[in-house]
């Protein structure tokens, strides 16, 4: 679980939400220039964005209403210092102080980021981060920030994602300022940026008006192992902190931007690989860069799978066809969140904050006036569950900031991607709270207790049947947790888990039903030849004579049969003495009661009922989860070179004399109501229904669990395809079941007490 003082918040950046008000004295940023050059999708710009500079009071009030207690935001360097150095714009200082006071008024703790890419154009004209003086520029800016905001803020972050603003802005040219510099220049720039971080930390501490906490927020894709094997884990770790990217993407590297800050040195592998491109790096530089920090921020969105290859070298696994991805095209990889956090904490040993994580969706306002974003809820639930697991496994993570609160200007993508949990109509500036915001509010209020990792995932348990070849045909155990055949969940959250495992480990899935073992067994019997003449004991007899086993009560549904099909159900003896005499003399023709059957017939077989399934029949059998059978007669069939064992004495002990009237145990179900739960039998062990779905049918699952088998047709259950031969279990508290199509199903459940 998360620590009691875990920080839950949201994050944003100044340029992406504020908009511009040219009367406030603010300066121009490199992103203003980039937009003017037509480098933004659809020719857009951030002149208005979310108009936050005019609407921050209502935005912070909305945060309060949604339960947000912490807000990571950035200042616009060019707004505060229009020339980048020198003159300070007092209007900007007043604006940001009022913003912070408004946050506090709404009981929101500010986490202030000094630089989230709002680089002053005047400084870019002097060479930008490539200029050796850039570290000094940033130090001066940090001093102004400390002097004006440290009385209101305790938490400060120097730089956001240097991998991005160095690489995308100056190596590939995808972001502002849109440059494609020589590799050697980019290494110099990265070194200058890290020195700027160090000098920024010094300025913040020197000029702060009270003790403050300082961190740093890099990013990168996270490697995660294909399996939990030691070899794969080590290979993933090696990939994450190694240097496997091509030179044109070298800035996407964890160790180069974090080792100097937290370990005081550049990684040796990188120094060797890139030695021809490196600037002069002095001991004084490393001491400056590695200023002591209070925490490590980390922005994590996705990652890549790695396995161990020859000589333990990482093998970068291909993604599966159709893999889940966000609207931005980024893969959905909660595993990377878990392993990335673990690897980072093990290497750097600093308290961590996840300073950004979220997903873009193509959200829109629905006809009901709301914004439904279930994919974002699923994404956040999976990632936050992975975060909790990482915390449980020892990572010291102090907080999480969701990216982001408002849909905003998404850099070069303009307004084509929506990351927010609040929808923004960029024409009217109307805010509409999305479903994900209400979901996140519950997560924050409960400190994560509402996450799926802390609750049972009540998914439909689709099962792989157990096939058994018999001397007379075959059986397919569709729903079984019996030791002789234990079904496995074939898909979903519990994929690969045996039904017996779920029964033992997750009893809540089955309504905490009071039974040591899963109580029912559902199987399909395909009889090519006649089955043996047999009888089952009741619970009391089985307990006394079969080492505490259950007896066996069962029922049959005739799925298919030959035209002249029949079953053995009961016998013709009037007294116990007559029954014993007939059996001992082998007078089977006179003893057995054979009954004609047709498709759709349903028969209840109580303990003590002599019975046999004849060849040419396909039967769906629902029974107690017991494999106790006493054979009276088996046609002299051999198994493993020997006649199969008979149980004459025990059979004669338990046979009911006289037999029940067949009318009380048998009915035909072909003319039952459609779109209805038709009860076929209800006894102390189970209730069995037949469902005939004619198009659309909705029911509620109110039992501890419900087994279902499709016996004819196909259709959908809650949007998932089902067809003849499928078997599945609906867990407790599953809620509404929506069936669509044309099909017949047999359902069973333990009887409600």
TrEMBL record:
GO terms for molecular function: beta-glucosidase activity; mannose-6-phosphate isomerase activity; zinc ion binding. Substrate binds at residues 16, 116, 160, 301, 403, 410-411. Residues 680-749 form the Mannose-6-phosphate isomerase cupin domain. PROSITE patterns: GLYCOSYL_HYDROL_F1_1 (PS00572). The keyword Hydrolase applies. It catalyses: Hydrolysis of terminal, non-reducing beta-D-glucosyl residues with release of beta-D-glucose. It is an enzyme of class 3 (hydrolase). Keywords: Carbohydrate metabolism, Cellulose degradation, Glycosidase, Hydrolase, Polysaccharide degradation. Gene3D superfamilies: Glycosidases (3.20.20.80), Jelly Rolls (2.60.120.10). GO terms for biological process: cellulose catabolic process. InterPro entries: GH, Glyco_hydro_1, Glyco_hydro_1_AS, Glyco_hydro_1_beta-glucosidase, MPI_cupin_dom, PMI_typeI_cat, RmlC-like_jellyroll, RmlC_Cupin_sf. One of its GO terms (cellular component) is cytosol. Residues 474-544 form the Phosphomannose isomerase type I catalytic domain. Its EC number is 3.2.1.21. Pfam families: Glyco_hydro_1, MPI_cupin_dom, PMI_typeI_cat. The active site is at 161 (proton donor), 356 (nucleophile). Belongs to the glycosyl hydrolase 1 family. This is Beta-glucosidase. It comes from Kineothrix alysoides.
